[in-house]
Amino acid sequence: MLKILVPIGISPDANETLQYAVDFASDFDASIFVMDVYNVSAKAGSLSNVSEKLAKSGKERIKGVIDQVDPKNVDIKIATYNGDLVDGVNTIDKELGIDMIILAPRSNDIQEDLYLGNTSGKIIKRTDIPALIVPKGTQYKPFKNILTAFKSGVLKRKRILEPLVMIKKKHNAKVNLLFVKTPGYTDEDLKINTALMDLCSKLTVTENPTTYLGVMEHFQSKHPDLLCVFRRKRGFFIKLWESNTISKSEFSVPIPVLVLSVKKD
User: Among 173, 190, 189, which residue's Cα sits nearest to residue 228?
Assistant: First the structure.
């Protein structure tokens, strides 16, 4: 069974993201772990019960969010962690084997000019788990037209594509590949992995300064309901990876974004 992690921040719309995750999990026969992170670094003997109180408070808040959604017979559990957010995600992944993270573009940040807030940005940029970014107010529905954008056809491992393969198979989706040649591409980049080509309904090749600009050029004509990109150290978001946050002026799309694990350094 698939295991989905849903980080819950303090956003008043947290129940919307969780409902989307529940609907997704119901469709894919998955279980959900709702995550809460708190941070207590008290000296031994002092504030000894603070951690316990915060953990209890966090669980109560999460239970309140869970009570607002239709569970649809999906198994929903709570996972709490005391410490750094990224360490928490990685620890839970190590213990449980998380297959996917589902989160909103902004989880703890109310600044409307941000696409990724500090919390969601850290999770996307500093973990190596496939993630589905779901815009606020999005209702779950089957994906029929997926645009997969990349600037190198090299794959480290075929299993990187598993979330994309799973969605394509379940929804009988059409996968359009957008190969964006960016400055400095190599002959190796031009060799598109056969597993990626096997998913392809159509391949489009374009030349742009960045992969994102290539996506924006072809977004309207492709009419995707899901954008799929690869998480890389210097990948889709390029210099945007340097900061935890990403502004909407730098990147924003109105549809869910599937971010696959590291493809090529």
Answer: 173
